[in-house]
Predict the structure.
Amino acid sequence: MNTLSTSLSPDLVQRLRQAGYKITPPRLAVLEIILRDGQHQNPSEILRQAQAIHPNTGRATVYRTLELLTQLGIVRPIYVGENGPTYIRAEGGHHHLVCAQCGKIVDFDQCGADSLARELEARFGFHIRSHLLEFYGLCAECYTGA
Ligand SMILES: [Zn+2]
Ligand SMILES: [Zn+2]
Ligand SMILES: [Zn+2]
């Protein structure tokens, strides 16, 4: 029996149960992989890592779980470049610098949006759970090479 990793809050497990979903080991593995680090992961990477934990995890299970977790607002798909969606945790903030020329994406940790979020909550009575912030421009290499 697997123990829940620290990245899996009881609140998330609760949300899955309340939505009527059984917490199966493959589902748990998918969830853990996405929440573990703040990196984007595409479904193939998630499948490969899930199979390292539970060898009998199937591709369909991974896709269905990603769909379910997206519906529940636990993970979020991010479409960058020409490839399919990558997934990250939905809660909190996520920030990108996107190079318009070579397509490079740099993730960065912090931004000043939290105080803006509080302001928007007060103004619209909206409860904000997360934000996605993207800046477009040229990376250092493309800028100097141009
Ligand atoms: Zn570039
Ligand atoms: Zn990112
Ligand atoms: Zn932020």
